[in-house]
Design a protein that fits this description.
Blueprint lengths: L5 E8 L6 H9 L17 E7 L4 E7 L9 H15 L3 E7 L6 H13 L3 E6 L6 H12 L5 E4 L8 H9 L3 E2 L14 H14 L6 H4 L1 E9 L5 E9 L2 H8 L4 H18 L3 E9 L7 H7 L2
Parallel strand pairs: 1-3, 1-4, 4-5, 5-6, 9-10
Antiparallel strand pairs: 1-7, 2-3, 8-9
Bound molecules: guanosine-5'-diphosphate and magnesium ion.
The site of magnesium ion has 4 residues, from helix 1.
Length: about 300
Amino acid sequence: MTDTTSSGFISVVGRPNVGKSTLVNALVGTKVAITSARPQTTRNSIRGVLTVDDPPSQIVFVDTPGIHKPRTALGERLNSLVYATLGDSDGALFVLDATQPIGPGDRLIAERLLESGTTTVVVVNKVDRADPAQIGEQLAEAAIWDFDAYAPVSAQKRDGTDLIVAEIVARLDPGPFFFPPDAVTDQPDEFLAAELIREKYLSRLRQELPHSLTVVVHGIEVGDKGITRVDATAYVERESQKGIAIGKGGSMIREVGASARYDLERLFGTKVFLDLDVKVEPDWQTTEEMLDRLGF
Ligand SMILES: Nc1nc2c(ncn2[C@@H]2O[C@H](COP(=O)(O)OP(=O)(O)O)[C@@H](O)[C@H]2O)c(=O)[nH]1
Ligand SMILES: [Mg+2]
């Protein structure tokens, strides 16, 4: 039977900051997950979809927030999200950072994966910044776990990602496509847009403020001149943070807006008018009701 397809959900797991989101973007060829040098950038499970022609296969990558210690209601939801995601998947990519020694956090995740018996491909990422000896050492150390396959890659340079796809496709079970072949994500436009705006704030804000900030897109409308209108609000927890998120004379909100608009125009393929404002919503991270409203 030549028209049989294969498919599977693959969880992407690893410590914060090892490059999981960068890897998912590299694998699907489009920015579906925002990235930054800050841990806890990824707050929701994001699905990136890759459809391969030969053999006809569809891989749904599930980018998870990194496993970390829960401190707030948000932290707890992130952790249970990670474990729930693992349980539902057909396989896992376990991402390690070649520039950092394997640590207790990596071992904890390795144990979880071994317990679950999930088919696992180990990805040693950031090889562009590690020397061959470092990469070799890490591969040797990780080999002790005896996972199904090992792939040294640079997600940032999109180097070695074909090997990952080949290793996964070789192990997929027959199954239907869950998404149209040209889909790259299951996320609604509102969510992608909100995440792009949040990414622009992440790279511009210092210290703890990024964790206090979230973005909600209330509406996306295509107007008569083909201009897409995006209505968004950045929520912060305190009045003092509002001042920072707006900036002196509105400088921060203008910079974030201009940079986000550039990405939004590429996302939608139209001119974009972005209406962005900042509001104070105390304790949005700890209020279950607010987390529901924000879609966590
Ligand atoms: N040099 C290098 N940096 C990378 C690579 N992959 C990711 N990064 C960087 O590592 C940081 C964390 O990446 P991110 O994908 O957000 O990590 P996550 O927390 O695991 O999702 C970002 O600054 C990325 O640009 C890579 O292959 N090489
Ligand atoms: Mg991430």
